Amino acid sequence: MGGDDDEAMKKILQTIDLEMVYTMGKVSVFALRGVNLAIEEREFVSIMGPSGCGKSTLLHIIGGMLTPTGGGVWVDGEDITRLDDARRTDLRRRKIGFVFQRFNLFPTLTVEGNLRLAQRIFTDGARHRGGEAEHARREEVLALLGLRDKAKHKPMELSGGEQQRVAIARAIINHPSILLADEPTGNLDSENSQMVLNLLRDLNRDQGQTIAMITHNPDAAAVSGRIIRMQDGHIVAG
């Protein structure tokens, strides 16, 4: 592969010899056993495996929410395992978007209010002259996700599929380097699941959003460009 191609295939996320051991009394439980993973910029990757295989632990570590007991994790060139809590939180705010099975929206805020809060968190609450640009970004994302007519609605006034689309909008509002999705269709019926999966596929294909998705559903994984399979704390395929 030539130099231009090497630059084009930038690793946005990489783990090397990643290990996670939970100690329960005198018993050590190995959740991850030397996981080596690389995800390229603009990839859409699904991570599959049976319950207890370590896939959710892996997602929480690469998202900076857990510290591994061994190995390293690089997100957009930064080794997050060497950062203290404050700097890891800052990296997570700047470079990672999260979508969970439970929508985790603020019920007292409107759709627009949930997005506005995400923008405030991104700027660490600083007051600055970005109001018009931030408003334009909210309008752009709401239109992209088919939610412009829901901007003034609160979460309980929305369907499950609409709430998950709001959660995705919140996750991408600040242009994250990587979007991490943990069973994003787990609480949805088949119609809304397909709508959300199509949306993720379009974000990857049309917007170039890098996505890593945890799922147990082969139909969900099929929308991604690569499937990584885990078993007993190891990557066994992909």
Gap between N and C termini: 20 Å
Q: State the CATH class of one domain.
A: Alpha Beta
Query: Got a strand count?
Result: 10
Q: How are the strands ordered across the major sheet?
A: 6-7-8-3-9-10
Give the % helix: 25-40%
Mean pLDDT: 89
SSE layout and pairings?
Blueprint: H1 3-8, E1 11-24, E2 27-40, E3 44-48, H2 55-62, E4 70-75, E5 78-79, H3 85-95, E6 96-99, H4 111-122, H5 131-144, H6 160-172, E7 178-182, H7 190-207, E8 210-214, H8 218-221, E9 226-231, E10 234-237
Parallel strand pairs: 3-8, 3-9, 6-7, 7-8
Antiparallel strand pairs: 1-2, 1-4, 4-5, 9-10
Can you walk through the features of this model?
With 238 residues, this protein is α/β, with parallel strands linked by helices. The chain has a domain at 3-106 and 176-237: P-loop containing nucleotide triphosphate hydrolases (Rossmann fold). 36% of the residues lie in helices and 27% in strands. The protein has eight helices and ten strands. It has helices at 3-8, 55-62, 85-95, 111-122, 131-144, 160-172, 190-207, 218-221; strands at 11-24, 27-40, 44-48, 70-75, 78-79, 96-99, 178-182, 210-214, 226-231, 234-237. A six-stranded mixed β-sheet has the order 6-7-8-3-9-10, with helices on both faces. Strands 2-1-4-5 form a four-stranded antiparallel β-sheet, with helices on one face. Helix 4 (111-122) packs parallel to helix 6 (160-172) and helix 6 (160-172) runs parallel beside helix 7 (190-207). The longest helix is centred in the C-terminal third of the chain and has 18 residues, at 190-207. The protein is globular and about 50 Å long. The two termini are 20 Å apart. Residues 1-7 have low confidence and may be disordered.
